[in-house]
Backbone:
């Protein structure tokens, strides 16, 4: 397959005139074309000459073009572009969800066809790579930088694999520390945008009045203090991927503006009226239930539908079975390598790891492993691990903090916030609950501390 100089395209449509004119366009892009007017003929064509790309109409005399997407092996080796006559957004989305690389509408727009075909070459090498990742998964239990081989995670890898090469928006949900950002990075690295920037922005961490200018930029003089033009994050990551964490924390008025960017592909800087074209893939995340946020009017329904084109929900660590032990071994071997040590788990410690509920998920496990490894000599005993049940005493016998009289309130507050965060493994939501302040306040304080000097410990800044 790799030694062929010309790529092969299979065009499946029962309208012969359309097929011929499409063939002319596709050949002009350097492809060798073969036609088929039904699913049956398409299957024969596939068997006979291994096409690199298939352009298939959704409605065929003997069935639905989407049926080709059900052949997983076929999808793994070639790109499938669906053509829809009466393109509804839903049918196109449906095709993308099922693994199509992209979609075209009739009449075919030549520019778009050209772009899609140019991408085929690039996705071909990505597919090659995904195949290697699959092998790693079987042998090492890893998918890129993600570790885990439980059934629950395999489903996640399948979804990543399907959505990565497309341009669909993705909404990742899951408890704090389940690896949402890692999933977003993995999608980016398996996409055509991999050479372009990836930027993670946390909407919950930004001052509400600054989010708009951070995301979309501003013109000089747009507001007091805007003494020069500033490009927003969308412009900065043009052609790349923007990971928007805690999207539900965005003020609702801004959600409208975000939706507009997604729909028009243009951003408008604050203080301007002109739209600037941007090509950014958006991956959003939240550790809250977005449907509930819609009901409670914190997330606009139209934005939710737009982001939710491709939902990925990450299972909590406690539902990943053997992965807990597997990840614990993985993190420990990382420590051993780094420190040139040979520490290992006691059998009881492993049993305790498996029964603990891990409210802070993978992040908590990782931090626990590091801490336990530092404290242990050779064998890591169960006493170095957190116990099941209530993971953290909210009051009473947790670790204590000494504050001398003479310390400023701000300093005492800083220490208490950081200590609490450390105790809950960086889970800002839990820290906020314990401290009786809002998550937003935590973020704002962290921003201030970080700006003052980088005193924020690693365990907090993941
Ligand atoms: N499957 C995994 N394999 C290896 N490391 C993982 C995995 N999942 C998460 N991690 C690690 O755990 C930490 C937390 O992951 P991440 O920041 O992606 O979580 P998150 O869901 O975005 O959390 P939050 O909701 O708090 O933002 C990171 O150090 C990440 O590298
Ligand atoms: Mg995150």
Residues:
């Amino acid at each position: 397959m790799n030694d062929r100089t010309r790529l092969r395209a299979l065009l499946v449509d029962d309208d012969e005139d359309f097929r011929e004119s499409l063939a002319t366009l596709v050949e002009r892009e350097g492809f060798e074309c073969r036609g088929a007017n039904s699913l049956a003929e398409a299957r024969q064509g596939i068997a006979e000459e291994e096409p690199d790309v298939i352009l298939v109409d959704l409605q065929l005399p003997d069935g639905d073009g989407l049926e080709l997407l059900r052949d997983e092996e076929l999808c793994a080796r070639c790109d499938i572009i669906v053509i829809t006559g009466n393109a509804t957004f839903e049918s196109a989305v449906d095709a993308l969800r099922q693994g199509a690389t992209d979609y075209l509408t009739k009449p075919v727009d030549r520019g778009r066809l050209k772009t899609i075909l140019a991408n085929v070459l690039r996705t071909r090498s990505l597919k090659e790579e995904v195949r290697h990742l699959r092998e790693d998964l079987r042998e090492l239990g890893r998918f890129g930088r993600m570790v885990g081989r439980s059934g629950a995670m395999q489903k996640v890898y399948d979804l990543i694999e399907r959505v990565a090469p497309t341009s669909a928006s993705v909404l990742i949900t899951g408890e704090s520390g389940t690896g949402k950002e890692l999933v977003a990075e993995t999608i980016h690295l398996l996409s055509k945008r991999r050479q372009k920037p990836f930027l993670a922005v946390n909407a919950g961490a930004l001052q509400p009045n600054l989010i708009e200018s951070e995301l979309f930029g501003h013109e000089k003089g747009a507001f007091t203090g805007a003494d020069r033009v500033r490009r927003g994050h969308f412009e900065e990551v043009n052609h790349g991927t923007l990971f928007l964490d805690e999207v539900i924390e965005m003020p609702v008025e801004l959600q409208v503006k975000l939706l507009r960017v997604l729909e028009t592909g243009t951003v408008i800087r604050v203080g301007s009226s002109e739209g600037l074209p941007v090509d950014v893939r958006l991956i959003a995340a939240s550790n809250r239930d977005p449907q509930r946020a819609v009901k409670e009017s914190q997330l606009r329904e139209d934005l939710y539908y737009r982001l939710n084109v491709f939902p990925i929900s990450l299972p909590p660590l406690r539902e990943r079975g053997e992965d807990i032990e597997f990840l614990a071994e993985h993190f420990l071997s990382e420590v051993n390598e780094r420190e040139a040590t040979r520490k290992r788990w006691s059998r009881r410690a492993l049993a305790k790891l498996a029964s603990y509920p891990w409210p802070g998920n993978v992040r908590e496990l990782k931090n626990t492993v590091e801490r336990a490894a530092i404290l242990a000599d050779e064998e890591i005993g169960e006493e170095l691990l957190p116990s099941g049940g209530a993971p953290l005493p909210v009051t009473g016998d947790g670790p204590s903090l000494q504050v001398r009289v003479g310390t400023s309130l701000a300093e005492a507050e800083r220490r208490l916030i950081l200590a609490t965060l450390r105790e809950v493994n960086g889970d800002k939501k839990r820290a906020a609950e314990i401290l009786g302040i809002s998550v937003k306040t935590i973020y704002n304080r962290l921003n201030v501390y970080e700006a003052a000097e980088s005193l924020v410990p690693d365990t907090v800044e993941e």
In short: The two ends are 42 Å apart (CA to CA). The pocket of magnesium ion (ligand 2) is lined by residues 180-181, 245 (CB under 6 Å). DSSP finds 18 helices and 20 strands in the chain. The first strand starts at residue 7 and ends at 12.
